[in-house]
Amino acid sequence: MTITAVIMPRWGLTMEEGTVTAWLVPLGGTVAVGQELAEVESSKLAGTVEATVSGVLRRTIIEVGATVPVGALLGVIADAAVDDAEIDAFVGTFEPVEVAAGEDESSKPKTIEAGGLRWSYLRSGEGGVPLVLIHGFGGDAAGWGFIQGAIAADQDVIAVDLPGHGNSEKTVTDGSLDAQADAVIGFLDALGIDKAHLAGHSMGGGIAIGIALKAPGRVASLTLLAPVGLGDGINVDYLKGFVAARKRRDVETVLRQLFVNEALVTPALAEEIIRYKRLDGAQPALETLLAALLNGQAQRAQYRDKLGAIKVPVSVIWGAQDRIIPPAHAVGLPASVRVETVADSGHMPQVEAADQVNKILKETIAKA
Amino acid sequence: MAKKSMRTAINEAIRLEMRRDPTVILMGEDVAGGQGGSADVTDAFGGVLGVTKGLYTEFGPSRVIDTPIIESAIMGTAAGAAVSGLRPIAELMFSDFIGVCYDQIFNQAAKFRYMFGGKAQTPMVMRSMTGAGLRAAAQHSQSLHALFTMVPGLKVVVPSGAYDAKGLLIEAIRDNDPVIFLEHKAMYDLEEEVPDEAYTIPFGEANVLREGKDVTIVALARMVRFSMEAAANLSKLGIEVTVIDPRTTSPLDTDTILESVAETGRLVVVDEANPRCSFATDVAALVADQGFKYLKAPIKLVTAPHAPVPFAPNLEDAYIPNAAKIEAAVLSIVAAGGRNAA
Amino acid sequence: MQLDRDTLAESYRTMATIRAFEERVGADSLSGLIPGFVHLYAGEEASATGICLELGEKDWIGSNHRGHGHCIAKGSSVEGMMLEIYAREGGLCGGKGGSMHIADLSVGMLGANGIVGGGAPLAVGAALSAKTLKTGGVCVGFIGDGASNQGTTAEAMTMAVVLKVPVIFVIENNGYGEFTAVSYHSGGIDLAARAASFGMEAHKVDGTDFFAVNELAREVIAKTRATNMPAVIEVAVNRWHGHFTGDPQAYRSAEELATVRLSDPLVIFKKRVIEAGLLPQELFDKIDGEVADRIDSAARAAIAAPPPDISTVTTDVYVSY
Ligand SMILES: Cc1ncc(C[n+]2csc(CCOP(=O)(O)OP(=O)(O)O)c2C)c(N)n1
Ligand SMILES: [Mg+2]
Questions:
Q1: What pLDDT is attached to residue B342?
Q2: What is the pLDDT of residue A22?
Q3: What is the pLDDT at residue B336?
Q4: Which terminus of chain A has a smaller tally of CB atoms within 10 A, N or C?
């Protein structure tokens, strides 16, 4: 009879510790594989720890509110028949698990010069045509935390901080999708990457489309998460609110629009955003990008008619409850495009529906 | 992101601003250290606690200026240079030494703009070590932020950690008014995640470190840490407190304090300084004046006693507010129940 | 005037006591037994001793952060000082002051001072009291080379000259203010000459030579006592240790560090007295032994003593409440 440890997961490459914010199964409760056991928060992400086996939750070691390193023992699942003494022995001798990408180099941001700018990126996994993850307006590489680790098990994955974001230089040119696409091509050149799978979210989706149109030979597949460029509508209040927010409470209010599960907007997440916005150059960069994204109350760049011209596999993923860019933009796309609408997600399917996104992403890559 | 001590964060802030703006200069006693010494070492110390180490080597003697022990001239020179084109950072080694140079700060630098009808600007920063805890006794341990906060024309920054210190110091250097920047000497080694890049934290924007419905705690500098410790302990008793660090006592983010008291109805102010005419009484007065209707219990102040800072460790430990005293103050008003019961 | 044998022996005992006191306090500061900042006077013993020998009970001294030697030379109890420095009950200041604030008004010691330049005006005040109350006393204000630059010092000198009060400013020039050499921090000027320009007689003396210091002090103090005219003595001394305990002294060359102790005021004193046949080597050895015992038992007693009572945190803020 086996005893299984529930451990603090590592989400993304930079997570070092997490806080248990709730136990979702009572001590002694029966759990099934895949059942949500506990809510956990790191400085960047919040999510749930799921059961990997079925059985009974025999121990909850870490109390709510406590912060522990990745790999630490949170609880224990075992059959009801297993002796208490045996479980205690298991707990007593438990060694924290080395969770992939622990102290190794891939968890640290790397930097490279491209187009006269300093770019920061996270790179992990090995082999295959690299997957390049391009975040959205105001996001950063670490926001792909639930995606990068999963895909990197099979291949090389690069999550980039776009200029003006994350740890990259806070200089953007005119901020247009076109110019950003050129910039990312320059980044691929600097890394010596001829061809890549691209996945882009929101503004990053527009950039990915731009790259595929400009340099078709460089793109192996395209996965677009709630991308810009496929319609007029966009939540201008959200964008302007994001740019304007100075205080953490205001940022929290704004960010809630991103998610179905608004509890995912933790004070820590808002604090991260505030800290980013305080960096020299970040605020002007956001203002430039915003001005370039919008044309009055509508989106400026329109790629809808050009999507059919892209010859590599293209998937579009949209959260059914997206409040930033209407899911309706996914309707009526060319037949060559695979469209997936995910039910319980808002504008951030890579957080709220990471498993589905990973599945679609892997399939799109495999199709290339 | 790298963890950095408050010492490193402050050094980085000065370094980045000196690189960005050639009018920024640093002056003070032994800010480099070793001038004229037989060893021919010109960057021997970087301030008595090593905060400005390495700046002389990078920027040279015309921008990192060791001075004689003449604080009045240091502050006056900085004020004069600031109104005439430079952006000096003048170090007052210990804030207690303000006694020998206060005139240059509060009659000169602070008053120029107003006295001259808005025609002058004095972009200087006075950096100074503050606070008790190092057994340095009565003349090297005081918390004198109130002495500066009461002066119109001065902005006063009291950071509570490495991240805030860097962003607030860069803001201070870029600010066009005289700014008093007080560094708690017992916090120099405390580490936090601090970005390598330059960033600014605006003045007058409080940091809400923790939100709870029962009591609002307002605290500064090292007292923020003790308040967070108290908050964690109180949480185990089922009492949830909000901890507000105003970061700057002038300007003061009165909105955040009042909004929080409106939610909790109870206020504890924690201040390492002496209790009379202080930051603690100032915040208490604010809430009594503008937030009386929210209050469910008396306002409690946790401060040092009305006495100088003693030398002996056991006396000094008894003197400085700590988590236990903060918890007791919170419990006293939570237990008190309604306003009439209090 | 030749000092008698007893006075010679006692002067040596004072210097040896200062030395042993400082070496012990220095070691216990480094090992963490003594809290707070500690500035050692070792190497400068002949200055305080030679000058305070000319002072009596009605005379005052003002001191600075490097004040242990001044205290001992003016007659403070070594035991009370130790208790204070180790932060114990019964210390000279009840454990509230520590090394930087030792004061003993009972012997005319106005207090060490944590504020550089803080002491000079206070010395003028004590001299004003002496003059006004006609006690016949004088006040010696000990200041460092670094402190000699302070505005407060300049103001004090001006005040002394204007008021014509019996104060003697003793500038102990040990070559450094903290980690900065006097050549830099005073712009290379002559400190005694600057003081003279305020309108006082100013003198210079080699502070490793007890006899030179003492003879000059006798003459200057007598004159000031008789005339109420302030005066200045610049004493050239060596600071054997760092600015404070724990200072790695990177700014002093290996050569300077190797030679700074060669002109030891205690050794120079002994040699002169033995060669003149005034006191035998055995007496010095005996004094050294007694001093070592006294310092050791004072330190042990201090370490064994209880800390001050917590209730004293708020006492003694005022005379009356
Ligand atoms: C007003 C003031 N400024 C600075 C200091 C810090 N400080 C303490 S001692 C010292 C050096 C004093 O040099 P000096 O007067 O030559 O005395 P020494 O230490 O050499 O005996 C300094 C700068 C202080 N205590 N007070
Ligand atoms: Mg000196």
A1: 38
A2: 87
A3: 54
A4: N
pLDDT, position B154 = 98
Tell me the per-residue pLDDT of B208-226, one tens digit each, with 9 for 90 and over: 999 999 999 999 999 999 9
- Quick check: B90 and B82 in contact, CB under 8 A? no
Q: What ipTM does the predicted assembly reach?
A: 0.95
Is-contact C39 C25, C-beta < 8 A? no
Find the closest chain B residue to A277 by CA distance: B199
Instruction: Give the distance from residue A306's alpha carbon to the nearest chain B alpha carbon, in angstroms.
Output: 39
B79 and B109 Cβ atoms separated by less than 8 Å: yes
Question: Identity (one letter) of the amino acid at C235?
Answer: V
Residues C245-296 have pLDDT tens digits of: 999 999 999 999 999 999 999 999 999 999 999 999 999 999 999 999 999 9
- The residues that bridge with B243 in the sheet, in sequence order, are B210, B217
From B140, B145, B184, B306, the catalytic residue: B140
Residue B233: predicted pLDDT: 97
- For chain B, the structural domain boundaries read 3-193, 207-334
Domain boundaries in chain C? Answer: 5-305
Protein fold of B207-334: Rossmann fold (3.40.50)
Q: Which residue of A has its CA nearest to B236?
A: A65
Instruction: Find chain A residues with C-beta within 8 A of B4's C-beta.
Output: none
Residues of chain B with pLDDT under 50: 338-342
Q: Which residues contact A165 (CB under 8 A, 6 or more apart)?
A: A135, A138, A139, A140, A276, A282, A285
**Cβ-contact B45, C249 below 8 angstroms:** no
Indicate the pairing of strand B24-28 with strand B64-66. Answer: parallel
Question: Strands C176-177 and C180-181, how do they pair?
Answer: antiparallel
Yes or no: say if C149 and C120 are a contact pair by the CB < 8 Å rule: no
> Which ligand 1 atom is the nearest neighbour of the CA of B97?
1
How remote is the CA of residue C175 from the centroid of ligand 2, in Å?
5
**Does C115 contact ligand 1 (Cβ within 6 A)?**
yes
Chains touching chain C, criterion 3+ CB pairs below 8 Å: B
Candidate from B27, B69, B71 with most ligand 1 atoms within 8 A of CB, to mutate: B69
The predicted pLDDT at position C25 comes to 98
Q: Tell if the CB–CB gap between C250 and B139 is shorter than 8 Å.
A: no
Q: What confidence score (pLDDT) does residue A325 get?
A: 98
The verdict on A108 touching B (C-beta cutoff 8 Å) is no
Task: Check whether C1 has a pLDDT greater than 60.
Answer: no
Q: What is the CATH T-level fold of the domain A3-92, as seen in this structure? A: OB fold (Dihydrolipoamide Acetyltransferase, E2P) (2.40.50)
On average, the pLDDT of chain C sits at 97
Q: Where in chain A do CATH 2.40.50.100 domains reside?
A: 3-92
* Calculated CA dihedral for residues C122, C128, C129, C135, nearest 10 degrees: 130
Please tell me the distance from the alpha carbon of residue B202 to that of residue B199, in angstroms, as a whole number.
10
Query: Per the structure block, which two tokens stand in for C286?
Result: 């005996």
Pick the CATH number of B3-193 from 3.30.70.20, 3.40.50.970, 3.40.50.1100, 3.40.50.300: 3.40.50.970
Residue type, B232: A
Q: Could you report the average pLDDT of every consecutive run of 10 residues in chain A (368 residues)?
A: 85 79 90 88 79 90 87 91 90 79 65 96 95 98 93 96 97 95 98 98 98 97 98 97 92 96 91 96 98 96 94 98 97 96 96 95 96
- What homologous superfamily does CATH list for C5-305? Thiamin diphosphate (ThDP)-binding fold, Pyr/PP domains (3.40.50.970)
Strand order in the sheet with B300-303: B207-210, B241-245, B215-219, B267-271, B300-303
Rounded to a whole number, what is the distance in Å from the CA of C64 to chain B's nearest CA? 12
Ligand nearest to the CA of C63: 1
B306 is an active site residue: no
- CATH code of the domain occupying A109-367: 3.40.50.1820
Q: Are B247 and B205 in contact (CB under 8 A)?
A: yes
